[in-house]
Amino acid sequence: MHFIFYGYSADKFPEITKNLDTNNGLWWDVAEVFNSVVLSSQEFTQILGTEGDSGYPDHQDFIAKAKEIYRSSSDVSEFIKKLFKLLE
After folding, report:
1. pTM surpassing 0.85?
2. Structural domain span for residue 25
3. How far apart, in whole angstroms, are the C-alpha atoms of residue 53 and residue 55?
């Protein structure tokens, strides 16, 4: 999931991601929150047969807010842009 997320967000949002590190900082935080929310969605838990991904303890407040953003976003690009704003 990380590689897909980083590739997609780099292609769609080069103005946001061009100077960011995938191993720490904002882009890494966004990736972790994104993965937790998406992997915990009903669609993915049914496909994977898992209970989801609870994420890192430091991200819990963001994950709760991100789940709301995920439900209200019209597509993945909108969701990712809103996550960058949330985590800035």
Report:
1. yes
2. 2-87
3. 6
